[in-house]
Amino acid sequence: MKNTDYYMKTRVKLLKPLLGEGWDLEPAGGATGEAYIAHDGERKLFLKRNSSPFLAVLSAEGIVPKLLWTKRLENGDVITAQQWVYGRELSAHEMTRVDVAKLLSKIHSSSELLDMFKRIGNEPLTPASIVEDLQNQILHGGLSHPMLQEAVTYLSSMREKVAPPEMVVCHCDINHNNWIISEKEHLYLIDWDGATVADPALDLGLLLYEYLPKSQWGVWLKSYGVILDDQLEVRMHWYVISHALSALLFHLQQGETEEIERWNKELRKLLTSNRLFPEK
């Protein structure tokens, strides 16, 4: 704890000169501990260290709160300041909203975001690379669990059949806590640190399986701009299984018994509900 407090105080000391007199800083929470809230009376800013390199594009398209400035510290760290949004996170049941579907469609359709990713050299996330990574985790981690081989065998057998028809920028963490609705009803999707280029079915599958009953998928996807067909459904199912396997591997590595059991049940359910890839 003492080391953490020292780290925070040092970071605040480095950031304060960027703001000028009158500003106070406090940690904004989160897993990385690299985000801060700056206060000066009624004024507030959201500061982050080494945030996504395409934050400017996200800001310009209205996907994240407005980027106000970017500054580099002497140690090479880049600090970004964004407009503070007075609003709230979406609740789980609000993920059915039409504007959620439309904003995700806007993100997936953005040629500017895709061009930015290509310029910074991001390698696309493909079914083949996902399977290879999962196999390496199992092999090098020395992990053993009945569901591991069954799940990775399924993913491997289907990887050619779920080849993406297109590659787009995917957020990869569409949890309802990352969706912010402002007091003026403007919707934002924040926390882009894990974004990558992949099949849009990755985001779509994680969202639909988590938040909507299957009976509502077709209507929601119509708002997004696509028709639910067998091919899309099988691709979404594949990515949800890969996500569940990744979660199980993580908790096996951490030795977290309750989470291991939870993701084991989830994987079993997903594999049991497996549908054969439709014949053409």
From TrEMBL:
<dbReference type="InterPro" id="IPR002575">
    <property type="entry name" value="Aminoglycoside_PTrfase"/>
</dbReference>
<dbReference type="InterPro" id="IPR052077">
    <property type="entry name" value="CcrZ_PhaseVar_Mediator"/>
</dbReference>
<feature type="domain" description="Aminoglycoside phosphotransferase">
    <location>
        <begin position="27"/>
        <end position="225"/>
    </location>
</feature>
<dbReference type="Pfam" id="PF01636">
    <property type="entry name" value="APH"/>
</dbReference>
<protein>
    <submittedName>
        <fullName>Phosphotransferase</fullName>
    </submittedName>
</protein>
<dbReference type="InterPro" id="IPR011009">
    <property type="entry name" value="Kinase-like_dom_sf"/>
</dbReference>
